[in-house]
Amino acid sequence: MAIIRPFQALRPLPAQAASVSAVPYDVVNAEEARAFAAGNALSFLHVSRAEIDLPAETDPYSDTVYNQALENFRRLRAAAPLIVEDTAAVYFYRLRMGGHQQTGLAACYSIDEYEGNLIKKHERTRRDKEDDRTRHISTLRAQTGPVFLIYRASSAIDSVAARVTAAEPLFDFEAVDRVRHTMWRVTGADLHALIKGFGALPCLYIADGHHRAASAARTRKFLARQEPGLAHEEAAWMYAVAFPDAQTRILPYNRVVKDLAGHTPNTLLSELAARGLLHGAGTPAPSRKGEVSMYLGGLWHALRVQGRPGATDIGGTLDVSLLQEQVLMPLLKIGDPRTDKRIDFVGGIRGTGELEKLANSGKAAVAFSLFPVGTDDLMRIADAGEIMPPKSTWFEPKLRDGLLSHLI
User: Fold this and answer.
1) pLDDT level of residue 310 (50, 70, 90 thresholds)
2) CA torsion through residues 312, 245, 151, 22, sign
3) Contact, 266 vs 275, CB < 8 A?
4) Residue 223 — φ and ψ, nearest 5°?
5) Torsion sign over Cα 59, 64, 65, 68
6) 24 with 97, same domain?
7) Which residues constitute the domain of residue 275?
8) Which residues pair with 95 in a beta bridge?
9) Are residues 319 and 403 in the same domain?
10) In 3-state terms, what secondary structure has residue 376?
11) What CA–CA distance (Å, rounded) separates 286 from 394?
């Protein structure tokens, strides 16, 4: 079963929702965060990336940054203002980007179920990133950025969503990136129907936000050690938004490599041809699984990566895995893409033009455009207890920070 719990959200008033809301803390660097928040004292980036209000040379993991985040959080609560709901609720949260639309349920989800693998994972997490958000949550005593979950679509949940979202929303605005964010508050009989509908689901899956989830779980343990004897009931729950699998959209997570590991463009092409991987001229975006587009020497080339005979692991059949095994590791000497400084990753939202720009400017020697992983692939890998390769999926559109916060 999947347990959901209503909560008394901390949120802006509708008139300030657009100004307060901000992109997730981990999709921008400090320089980009400063630019997004410039001239907007209400931007939640002042809380999620508090280093933007400190000298540029400040260590982002220093005490000063977390103290600044707490000060900024307190200031924002008064200035926006941010209010705490009188009664607990859950919220339908709709994202619309161009012709794409998806509607998920913002609620509290069980950390016990996360630790018991009823909320399934498909990524490894990094300790330093866990440390950062654990300290952020425990300092603010609030989860301010949602975990992005998915579930296999349910007609019972769909019917409640259709009924609730036909009414007047709580929030409805278009962000600067032209994504429309609309939210409805849910209580009463509809809330009880959702609790029953989610209770019938066998499990949930983390789509994006593994570090937020891990940090929420670590915060519960931290508070139990720091304040023994206190119940910390709210710390047993994490704030997340769960979407039906059929509505979510995954974009590719593309790769650029800074040098050719001793090859020239011609020798690399020759090696690829000799291995049966090169199949002539290509287009910027591959059209199906098994195809990879490579930008080299100002031209797009078509590659076809081949599955390993007898492979039993699902993750090993992904194009991103096959590209690593057949091209990046043997020819470009990229050992561990998690740690190798010669490879960078470009989210699909930036488009293939970004790959061309990086290569044409000399910042990369070669770029690879991938076909996106399917949501079903993600769930099958999580069901099998496997781990996806790093930087395999880019979910778009993104949820905004600051619209709802869960106080612990």
Assistant:
1) low
2) positive
3) no
4) -65, -35
5) negative
6) yes
7) 253-371
8) 102, 181
9) no
10) helix
11) 16
- Domain assignment present for residue 63? The answer is yes
Secondary structure E strands in 213-340: 237-244, 250-251, 253-257, 278-281, 291-296, 299-304
Question: Do 347 and 251 contact (CB within 8 A), yes or no?
Answer: yes
| Res. 71: pLDDT tops 80 | yes
What is the pLDDT, as a whole number, of residue 36? Answer: 95
Provide the number of structural domains found in the chain: 2
Residue 46 phi/psi, 5° resolution?
Answer: -65, -20
pLDDT value, residue 284: 97
Euclidean distance between CA atoms 132 and 151, whole angstroms: 28
The per-residue pLDDT for range 189-242, each reduced to its tens digit, is 999 999 999 999 999 999 999 999 999 999 999 999 988 877 789 999 999 999
Strands 147-151 and 237-244: parallel
The residue among 163, 198, 168 whose CA lies nearest residue 183 is 168
pLDDT band, very low/low/confident/very high, at 307 (cuts 50, 70, 90): confident
382 domain-assigned:
no
**Alpha-carbon Rg of the chain, whole angstroms?**
22
Structural domain contains residue 234 = yes
The pLDDT score that the predictor gives to residue 17 is: 98
Q: Which two tokens stand for residue 365?
A: 């020697």
Question: What's the token pair of residue 145?
Answer: 């950025």
pTM above 0.90, yes or no: yes
Whether the per-residue pLDDT at 308 is higher than 80: the answer is no
